[in-house]
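Q: Predict the bound structure with S-adenosylmethionine.
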Amino acid sequence: MTEIQDVRGTAFIVAEFRAWENAAPHPLFVDPVVPIFLDARTRAAAERMVAGFPPGEWAVHLRTRYLDDHLDLQLTKGCRQVVILGSGLDTRGVRKAAPGVVYFEIDDKDIIDFKKARLKRAGFEAPIVFIAGNYVTDGLMGMLEANGFDRDAPSYVIWEGNTMYLTKPAVLGVLQALRRHVGRCAISMDYMSEEIIAGRTGDPRTSRFVEHFAEMGAPWRFGVDDLGALAGEAGMAVVDNAKLADLHHAYRPGRPLEGAFLDNYSICTLEPA
Ligand SMILES: C[S@@+](CC[C@H](N)C(=O)[O-])C[C@H]1O[C@@H](n2cnc3c(N)ncnc32)[C@H](O)[C@@H]1O
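A: Predicted complex:
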């Protein structure tokens, strides 16, 4: 990777935020792998992005903790395949490796090549099947099955930091494909409110933070106000849904909430209805 820009570049910003949590006095998770992807340039880019706006960084910590917890739960329930869509520099395939469980990661070729090289250089070996491509335009099920995915095995899909960059038809297309073709499947994903996308939160710091993403060529385009309706259109049911503001209050009691961002950012888990 030469430039930290467009949607691929956001993977480095998120990875930085995640790495910073390692140094917190009471971290919500520990990620000893993610520093291998980072350097002074990624740090500077992340600092610029979140300057004076801690909720931007907290959001990544909260969603990471939620997804780590839900992955643990799915593994306990017998999940055998974990699919990570738009996986970026997600390290769960290493951190959460489990006997008999295969991880499938899909992302752009540049990101996948960079990630594989860094993992290899650092000596990390993990049961990860890396798939380079675009899961919206290249056909999600074809990509997975060409790489050994078994549609009948219990599966968990992590879709983190992606839906906001897509469109409603693209998001629905992914959910419908999973619903139609994967027998036993749960999917967790984060999503913005429509107010965030429209710049209507009334919180100038939140609006500025959103603008930073547009300026790096990664505008947020899709938000959800009625999750039940979206899930219903895909034949899915909502089994869990939380605003990041609520997770913040639960995990960080006593730390005041700043601005409107975490009230307009949610994370959920869906299963076939
Ligand atoms: C904000 S980053 C999040 C990365 C990772 N999920 C995380 O939370 O650390 C978004 C990532 O999704 C990838 N991505 C977005 N849309 C994609 C698509 N249609 N196909 C493959 N990768 C995609 C980008 O290349 C980028 O690495």
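A: DSSP finds eleven helices and seven strands in the chain.
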